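Fold sample X.
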Amino acid sequence: MNGYSVFGVLAAAAAGLWAWRRFAPVSFWYGVGFPARAALVYLTWHHVASGCKLTRHRRRLRLTLDAVPVVGGASRTEAAVVEHKRRLRRVDVERAPRLGLLRPTRQGWRMRLRLHDGQVPADYQKAAEGIAHAWRVHSVRVVDVRPGFVTLWATMADPLTEVSVSSEPCGLLRVRPGKLENGPDWVMDFRVVPHWLIAGATLSGKSNLANAIICGLAPQPVALVGFDLKGGVEFTPYAPRLSALATTRKESVDLLADLMAEVENRMATCRAHGARNIWTLPEALRPVPIVALVDEVAELFLMADKAEKEEVSKTATSLLRVAQLGRAFAVSLIVCGQRIGSDLGPGVTALRAQLSGRVCHRVNDPETANMTLGDLDPAALDAARAIPAETPGVCILTGQDGAWHRARSVYVPEAAAEQAAHDYAHLTPDWNALVGSVPDVRPAA
């Protein structure tokens, strides 16, 4: 075979690999990309671990030389005769953590590591950025922790560049607002995590997430309630699907009083029938779930003068009671805000403790990120502060699994949310009939 034939074969192979990668990227990754990356990881792991200070020195028995021959002596042509022997000695040996089997994913791979004595998962979280640079990947994260082991997840590229979710319904009080970084859809289940705190600066994607939630809940048999103290400009377009809407603090106090009275009615119904929550009631007695959306929580707690102190106190108390008691009675809260800090008063801090679901977009001040995620995981706080301004919708969230995830909400135009509100307006329960109904408190037979 001459040189031209070899060149033609190599060119055809290169073109075939390019076409394979271009038109079938998933199979190319599993067939070619991942095996090459796995070989690189295994061959360089010791050097990478040493550079990231994850190795440990152990004393091991090794055969060593006492001396070696040297050139010298009477003249340049003579060599000094040096007697050398091998001896068994204890020496310091640098050992990298034991690397388990690499398991491919659609975006990268996962691998389990065995911790050295004295190591903790935080050591690998600190070294994750260095490992990502050494392996030339987008990111490396600690995704699973077990006694003596950690699991690292490496991603080749940012999976949140383009986001799309399944259009299939996912059940009552469940919505798919976006995508998680590790591939699956982001599912908000209000029966598991009933209350959510959503923080984000202007143009960070907070309003888009609210649009996605409204589009997901609009076709479901639930009652939507809005608190919009910015004059109603945010939630008024969705008024056909809202059972009630408060646009001033006075209206908010009255609406929260009605909401708390409805919680007490449902509490009396469950007590009369020996049920711990409404989901264990007979279906004929089960009330309609209620989801309350608060657009700007700071407006509920800010005071212009002392005359508003009583209204603020009533609002904070009612909102906190709804958050404390609403879970068992299908009353959920979604509290949004640009600025969430301790300077708003102790009511905000107490309310935050009841909102177990947290979503933090890009924020303007560190305290808002700290109030949203700081009490859960310091690593999540660092990730939230690193969200760039040119990626609206990207957020850090914590939910029902107890771990934090990087996610991005799917783009939902305001026109689409308004159209969903009009299309499903016939499902809107009448608020006066809902809160004015007399509960069935007859004891169960």
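Fold sample Y, listed below.
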Amino acid sequence: MTRRTVRIAMNGVTGRMGYRQHLVRSILAIREQGGLALGGGEVLWPEPVLVGRREHALREIAERHGLTEVATDLDAVLADDSIDIYFDAQVTSAREEALKKAVAAGKHIYTEKPTATDLAGALDLARLATSAGIKHGVVQDKLFLPGLLKLKRLIDGGFFGEILSVRGEFGYWVFEGDWQEAQRPSWNYRSEDGGGIVVDMFPHWEYVLHELFGRVTTVSAHVSTHVPRRWDEQGKPYDATADDSAYGVFQLDGGAVAQINSSWSVRVNRDELVEFQVDGTHGSAVAGLRNCRVQHRSATPKPVWNPDLPVTESFRDQWQQVPDNAEFDNGFKAQWELFLRHIALDEPYRWDLLAGARGVQLAELGLRSHAEGRRLDVPELSL
């Protein structure tokens, strides 16, 4: 067995997502399984270099997991010829500059989204990376969720017939931070720091819709800040200047319509924190993070509206669970493995910085749609 080492500068691992999903459940999980098998007796071994501003926090994480390399000087890390990949999970406002530095240093790039604070910056990044001849990828984790993989299986199998509509519900109640600690960092609720649910979630909805149902051609959005006052990590009150809820309607190439509600000010009355209902001429499905339920047209009930009589049947019980039929790995890890194979073996990989720019574009147009009170076209992007 031959081991090939790939050194990854991981910037932002002191944050919740960078630490839990990318370091622990992806890179360290790959190491725990013995590396990534490339075939022919060769294994790719990821070697993380933890990068950030707080050295003590980096060293604590490194010691916890038996790692040795930490750094607070990004420029020095990027100047190190032994570094193969730069990964970014920082706050959005710091990402674009760091990615440009990594491109200039000739590093391959893998990054969280949004890739930039505006479309111009996102497209510039994509052009720079393509011109530099480096490989680049953007995290699009929800495509690898078990529930959406089952949904993709149904689509590919022709279960729905003609897909008519998609209805999405995402969100949960994020505590204000005064009497209970907030589950999300305070910068998420300050627009001046790159916060806002449109900027955060519309890039997700772009790639989910694009990959499963068709390109988004128009967007109409209403945006709100339902909770205007919150308390930060030090217990100090602050004004929430960013949107915490968004209600979007998206026309898709091919004619289907998607309606997705996103909110950090909603209490959950559904089976999972995100659910998509897909209705087609031959059947419907409801997919969440892990589960997917279906109802074929041959098993569709025939309800009649009558407000004077109680409902005598359980509509939810009339749906059938879609079986796993496969083993599902952590979605972040699955995409990391595909990107690492792209680096090592030059296997195809389509979730690049141009795909990331589409997400930034949809968020930008969603905010503009709200500000102007009208539906907007979503032009196709190219480099």
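Sample Y note: The longest helix spans residues 353-372.
Also: The radius of gyration is 22 Å.
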